[in-house]
Amino acid sequence: MRNKSRLRAAAAILLLAVAGCGSTPAATPGGTAPAKGSSTGGSQPDYTPTGKLVADSGFRPAVDGFGFQNYGNDSGPINLTANTMRALFGDAVCASTQGDCELIPQAETWMAEQNKGMANGHCYGMSVTSLLVAMHKLDPAKYGADSTVKLDLAHNAALQEMIAQQFVGQWMPNVVAGQVKGSPKQIVDKLTEVLKPGAAETYSVGFYKRDMTGGHEVTPYAIEDKGNGQSSILIYDNNFPGVTSHIDVDRNADTWRYQTASNPADPSEPYDGDAGTATLMLDPTTPAQQQQTFPYLVHDTKGAKGAKPGGPALTVFLDSDPVDHGHLLITADGGKRIGYVNGKRINEIPGARFVDVKSNNSTYKFEPEYQIPAGTHFTVTVDGAGLKKTQKSDVVILGGAFDVSVGGINLAPGATSTIDMGIDGDRVKYTSTDAQAPDIEIGESYDSSDYAFAVSKAAVGPGGTVEVTLPLDRNVFTVDATKSRAPASLGVTMERIDDHGKRTFSKDGVAVSGTATAAFDFDAWDGGGKAIALTVTDQGKKNTTQLPAN
Questions:
Q1: Is 256 helix (H, G, I), strand (E, B) or coil?
Q2: Would you say the C-alpha torsion 135, 141, 143, 147 has a positive or negative sign?
Q3: What is the pLDDT of residue 1?
Q4: Residue 293, SS3?
Q5: Taking the model in full, what pTM does it have?
Q6: Quick one: which of 10, 321, 334, 476 has the most CB atoms within 10 Å?
């Protein structure tokens, strides 16, 4: 089920909440480097410095940058796979290692969200991969050529996967800990210190627009002193292969400015900031090259009354249109909130935070990722105020031992959907102001096995509520439609993974009225049995049938 239909992965348009970076529609996997002095698009000419280079790593875009443009997912590149996840995090992310790695629910969800984010571009991965080759940490011959600029992306699964692997390095705690933040002048001073041949550490430059939209990641390689307090950071911008671009810094005013276009066919536009915007930063290369610890590795105890205490912060994603989308408002018990109120951000929850998205397209106004402290019970409201038209929207919640998703919400202008999740991820209650039929999924990771349960077309009428439960202490998956105000024809899928492999069960067309519950007792199936007992209770009347296993 999870590889075939991963509910929100199939439905999402673009990722919200993991960093992407705008690729150009003209970018085609493969391609060759332009001649020196040329430009891949008329809006980004090759820059020739006239001032003194006070720092120079020796990197040059025409040789050490890729010959193809930053790209998205349109051409179907290989991004993260289960084997990449295993390389990044070790066997701990595998529910089963019999043959290929079968990922635990949390790892598969995280991978799916990261891969969707790459639809917006692979800028971070391209910057870091090019630096690793320049540092002689990667051999380009392994990927089919003797230099970076000669590498072909098309039909090069190994290179595609490596770029994707480096892309997600930006989220690793040791990378975040090594990030250099400061005023524009301080960023130039740090680059002047580290940009030299053979440096043990290299950095990529990340930047955002002032409102934290349109971010991008590029490769710095030299600092030009133009005199009178003016400096330029010479960069390889992977949206424009083969040419030198430059970020200008006014050391007197402590400001920065970059003139670029996310699409070479479009007019260029300014990116700028100052000492107070915190929109220019440096990301280290090497910390992500060691095996990482996957944060969502808690395993609940099957049969327990509740989840283990503690664990990592929960992460909440909204997947929808990159421009015209709703907003989230997350409300904790006691009424404190994080999210959007009347179009403006608020954060009242101690320890909660926004994680902003890089897209390198100023027209994109991505919803940030939300991180909520573990042990916090909250509701998520998806608000359609301000939408221009109905947009498909998915909400994904990732916890230490579980993942939850409500997908396929057709969010209309002015409408709202509310998701109330149990603190252990064992219950999802969905309410809507208008008629909906979302897909709801719960994934749970236990000490000896992992499970994923999904119900599709969980219909509700206006003001209706449907509740899905997967209690930790018994093997019953329940869909409660007694307050749904709508009949439903449900599709149900179950998956169990352990060291012996994977078992699946699926059933379509399970009829449930708007006054009924459907309980799927999978205890016998869990032990290797051939059937699942379905009990439909409607206004006190029970009817039990045996559903044959697949």
A1: strand
A2: positive
A3: 39
A4: coil
A5: 0.80
A6: 321
